[in-house]
Amino acid sequence: MKCEVCLQLLEEYLDGELREAEVAPISAHLVACASCANEFEALTAEQEIYSRYDRELDISATMWNQIAARTVELQHTIEQQPNRTWRAWFAVPSLSWSFAGALAVLLIAIVLGVSYFRQAELNREKQEALSSEPANPVKPGKIEQKTGPTVAGISKQEGKRDLANANVPHHQNTPKLKTMAKLNAPSQKPAADQSDVLFSDAAYAAVEDQETQVHIENAQNLLRSVRNIEITDDDSDIDVTYEKALSRRLLNENIVLRREAEMSGKFPTKELLSDLEPFLIDIANLPDKSAADDLRVIKQRVQKTEIVAALQGY
Amino acid sequence: MKRLALDEISLDRRPGARAGVLMNSSADLIARACAGDPEAFRLIFERYSRPIISFLYDLVGDRELAEELTQETFVRAYRNLSTMREETKVSTWLFGIARNVAREARRARVRSSRHVDLDDESVLELSDTAPVPVDRLLGKELNSLIRHSLAALDEDKRLVFTLKVFQQCSYEEIAEITGFSIAKLKTDLHRARTEMRKRIRPYAGVTYEM
Q1: Do B78 and A52 lie within an 8 Å CB cutoff?
Q2: Nearest to B63 among A14, A57, A75 (CB)
Q3: Closest to A291 (Cα-Cα) out of A239, A254, A244, A252
Q4: CB spacing of A63 vs B57 below 8 angstroms
Q5: pLDDT grade, residue A102 (50/70/90)?
Q6: Bigger pLDDT: A187 or B186?
Q7: Which residues of A touch B42 (CB under 8 A)?
Q8: What pLDDT, on a 0 to 100 scale, did the predictor assign at position A59?
Q9: Which residues in chain A are contacts of B139 at CB distance < 8 A?
C-alpha cells in the first residue's frame, strides 16, 4: 500500500469506519512504515487530548425538576382534550403556505387547460359548420351526373374490369374501402356524440392525408402513362384497357376524397382533386380500343394544364 | 478498533449511575414512557442528559443556554415519544432533536441580534505565546483551548466534529442526525480535524514525541 492511500484512509481507520478488507492492509502498512505510523500516533494523541476535554457541566436536580414539571403540564393539557381524536375527524386540514401555493398553481393550470380545450373544441365546431355549408354546390353535382353513366358502364363490363384490376396491386384497393367506410361512419353517428372527437379526429386526419397522398401518386402515374402513350400516324386504335380500369377506380376514390377534403376545410386539396376529376372521367369513358384522336386530345390537355406538375407539388 | 458505544460512555462517565438502570434497555424505557410511566422517562433523562448537554454546549458555547436547550430537548422528546421509530437508536433520536433545538435557538438569536459570548473565563492568548506542552497545560487551560478551537469552526464542521470525536457516533448515525450525505460529513470532518489540529498540535507535540 502506498503512503498516500494509507494517509487518506487513516482518519476513517481511526474512527473504525473501514471495512475489514480495508483494515488489514493499513494495519500491515503501519507496521512497516514509520512515517505513517507517526501520523497515526499523532492522530491518536489528538484523540486522547479531546477525550480529556471537560466542559465542567453539571446536571443539576433543578434541571430534571423543571423538565418533570413541564412534562406533567404537557400530560395534563393532553388529558384535558379527550375529544381531540374525535374532533380530528372533523377538523379542517391545516395547509402550509408552500402546499397551499402548489395547490393554487395546480388549480389554475387545470382551469386554464379546460378552458383551452373547450375553446379549441368550439373553434373546430365552427370550422366544421362553415365547411359543411357549401357541401351541396353545383360542381360536385355535375360530376355525379357525369359519373353516373360511367359507373353503370363499369357494371356492364365487370369481367373486363376484373381483368384490369388484376394488374393493379391489391393494396391500392384498401384505402378506398377504408375511406368509404369512414365516409359513412360520421353520417350515421349523431352529431351530439362527439365526446372522443379530439383524438379520433387527429388520427382520422392523419390516415386521410396518407390516403390522399397515395391516391394522388396513383393519379399522377396514370396521367404520365396516358401522356406517354405513343400515337402513330396510321390512325389505328390503341388498347387502353388498363388505363381505363385504373381511372375508374381512381375516379371513385377521387370523389370520396374530394368530399372529405371539402368537409374538413382542406380547400387546396379539394381544388386539386376537382381539377383532376375531369381527366379521370375522360379516361374512364374511353373505349377499350380508343381512337388515336381521342387520346391525342387528352394527352394535349394533360400537357397544357400541367396537371401532373400540380399533382407532383402536392 | 473498538468504538465505544454511547450508552457505555454515558454510564461510565456518570459517577452516580445506578445498577438498576442497567436492567432497563433503552427500548424498554421508551416503551414504558410511551405507556405513561414517568419513572421510565426520568431514567431516559439520567442516561442521556450528559451527552445531550455536552453536545449542546459544544454547539452553542454557552453554559446557561445549553442547560435551557437540554430542557427543551427532553420536553420535546417527551411530547414526541410516540413518533420515535423502533429502528432508531435513542441517542440518535435525541441528538437529532437537540440539533434542531440548537439551530432554532441560533436563528432566534440572530433575529434578536443578541450576541452570546463564550464563557467569561480569560481566553488564552494562543497566538502570542510560545506553545506550552499539553502535559504542562492546566486542565482549565486545555478546556479553554479546545472550546475556543471549536468555536472557530463553522457550524456544519463543528456539528460533525462534535458528534464524531466527542459523542463517538458512527458516520451513519451522524448522517441520520444531521441529514448530511456521508460524503459531505467525511469532508467536513476531515476539514474540522485539520483546523483543530492547527490549534491543538503545537501543544500536543511534546506528548506524542515521548
Answers
A1: no
A2: A57
A3: A239
A4: no
A5: confident
A6: B186
A7: 64, 68
A8: 85
A9: 52, 54
pLDDT value of position B59: 93
Residues A24-65: pLDDT tens digits?
Answer: 999 999 999 999 999 999 889 888 889 888 888 888 888 888
* Nearest-neighbour CA in chain B from A67: distance (Å): 6
Residue A99 has pLDDT above 70, yes or no: yes
Cα separation, A279 vs B202, in Å, equals 105
CA distances, A234 to each of A95, A164, A238 (Å): 96, 27, 11
pLDDT, greater one: A204 or B55: B55
pLDDT score for B185: 93
Q: What domains sit in chain B, N to C, each tagged with a CATH number? A: 1-117 (1.10.1740.10), 121-210 (1.10.10.10)
Say if A75 is an interface residue toward chain B (CB within 8 Å).
yes
The distance of A36 to chain B (nearest Cα, Å) reads: 14
Confirm if A286 and A267 have CB atoms less than 8 A apart.
Answer: no
Q: Quote ipTM for the complex.
A: 0.75
Q: What are the cell numbers at A83?
A: 375529544
A59: chain B residues, CB-CB within 8 Å: 49-50, 53
Of A17, A63, A70, nearest to B67 by CB-CB distance is A63
Q: Which amino acid is at A78?
A: I
pLDDT at A172 over 50: no
What pLDDT, in 10s, does the model give residues A238-284? 888 888 888 998 998 899 888 888 888 888 888 889 988 888 998 88
**Contact with chain B for residue A17, Cβ under 8 A:** yes
Contact between B58 and B162 under an 8 Å Cβ cutoff? The reply is yes
User: For the segment B124-176, what is each residue's pLDDT rounded down to a tens digit?
Assistant: 444 445 556 666 666 778 888 899 999 999 999 999 999 999 999 999 999 99
Judged by CB atoms closer than 8 Å, whether chains meet at B143 and A75 is answered as: no
How far does the CA of residue B113 sit from the closest CA of chain A (Å)?
26
Given a contact cutoff of 8 angstroms between Cβ atoms, the answer to whether A13 and A26 are in contact is yes
HSE-up of residue B111 (Cα within 13 Å, Cβ side): 6
Contact A57 B171 (CB under 8 A): no
CA distance linking residue A74 with residue A72, whole number of Å: 5
- A46 CB neighbours in chain B (<8 A) are 193, 196-197, 200-201, 204
Length of chain B measured in residues: 210
Taking residue A29's Cβ as centre, other Cβ atoms within 10 Å add up to 20
Mean pLDDT of A207-215: 83
CA distance B54 to B59: 9
A-B interface: how many C-beta pairs under 8 angstroms?
Answer: 91
Contact B208, A42 (CB under 8 A): yes
A174 touching B, CB under 8 A?
A: no
Q: How does DSSP classify residue A289?
A: E
**pLDDT at residue B65, as a whole number:** 92
